Amino acid sequence: MKNNNKSDYTINFTRKALSYLSKHADLNEPEQVKQFIANHQVSNGYKKNLCIAYNKYCKYYKIEWEMPLYIPEAKTIRIPTTEKLEMLIARAGSILSIKLTISKETGLRPVELCNLKVKDVDLERKIIYPTTAKRGSGRALKISNNLQKTLQDYINRKNLNLTDKLFKGTADDYGKHYRQMRNQLAKKLNDPSLKTIRLYDFRHYFATTLYAKTRDILYVKQQMGHKKLETTLIYVQLLALTEDDEWTCKTAGNVTEATQLIENGFEYITEMDGLKIFRKRK
C-alpha cells in the first residue's frame, strides 16, 4: 500500500482492521471472515470498512471472494454549542487545549493537525497552511489573535525549529487523549451529554459556523478541504436545524470594543442609542 502511494491513515486503518479480523477468523478463509462481519454488532459503515480492508488482503494474496455490500446508515451530525466546546478546551491540559483550539478555529482534520510543522504556521499573518488529507484542495486558514500568541509562546517554550513537527504523537493519540479528558469531565460534572461530543465535531462546528457567517458554500468547501460539493452541503442542512438556537448579545460603543467582539466570533446586527449590537450563537 505504501508503494502504491496510499495515505498513512488508510494504511494504519487497514493494518488495525486486518489485525482485528485475524483474532476472530482465519484470514485465508473468506467465508469465515464474511460470517464474522455479518454477525458482528457494529454499524454498516464499519462493516463496509472491514470488507474494504479485507479486500486488499485478498487481492494481494490472490484469494477469491465475493465482497458483500454494506450500505452505511444515514446519520445526522449534531453540532455542539460554543459553550460546551469552550468548556472542554478549558478543562484540557496545556498542549491538548492548544490542539482543540486549533480544531475549533480551523476545522482541521486530526491527522492534518498532527502533521503540522512549525513552518506551516505563519504567525505574522495569523494563517495556518496545512497539508490537506484525502487529496483535497490546499487551503489557508485564519487563526485568532489569542491563538497566535498561544502558539508563539508554545513554539518558543519548546524551542522548535521550522522543520520540526508542531506536536508530538499521531491522530490516534490526539483522539485518545481527548476522549479521556472528555469522559473525566462528563463524570465530574455529571453531564453525560459531553460524552457525545466527538473530536470530529470540532471540525463540524467550524464548518457550520463558517457557513452561518459567510453563506458562501464554495468558500466553506475550500476551507474544509473537500473534494466534492455534496460533502459540504450537509452543513447547510445542519445550519437550518440550529437556526432557532439561543444567542448571546453584546454591545460596543467604540471601534476597539467592536473589533474585540468580531474577533471573538460576534456578528454585527444593528445600531441603537449610539451603540452597535452584535450577536453570537450559543
Describe this protein's structure.
With 282 residues, this protein is mostly helical. The chain folds into three domains: 8-61, no CATH class; 82-229, Orthogonal Bundle (hpI Integrase, Chain A); 247-281, no CATH class. The protein is built from twelve helices and six strands. A three-stranded antiparallel beta sheet has the order 1-2-3, with no helix packed on it. Strands 4-6-5 form a three-stranded antiparallel beta sheet, with helices on one face. Helix 9 (200-214) runs antiparallel to helix 10 (217-224).
The dominant shape is elongated
Annotation, overall tally of beta strands: 6
- The proportion of residues forming helix, as a percent range, comes to 40-55%
> Based on helices, strands and strand pairing, what is the structural class?
mainly alpha
Strand order of the largest sheet: 1-2-3
Number of domains: 3
Which structural traits does this protein have?
three-stranded antiparallel sheet; 12 helices; 282 residues; elongated; mainly alpha
Q: What's a concise summary of this model?
A:
By secondary structure, this protein is mostly helical.
Task: Describe how the helices and strands are arranged.
Blueprint: H1 8-22, H2 30-39, H3 44-61, H4 82-91, H5 94-106, H6 110-114, E1 121-122, E2 127-128, E3 141-142, H7 145-158, H8 171-189, H9 200-214, H10 217-224, H11 229-242, E4 247-252, H12 255-263, E5 267-272, E6 275-281
Antiparallel strand pairs: 1-2, 2-3, 4-6, 5-6
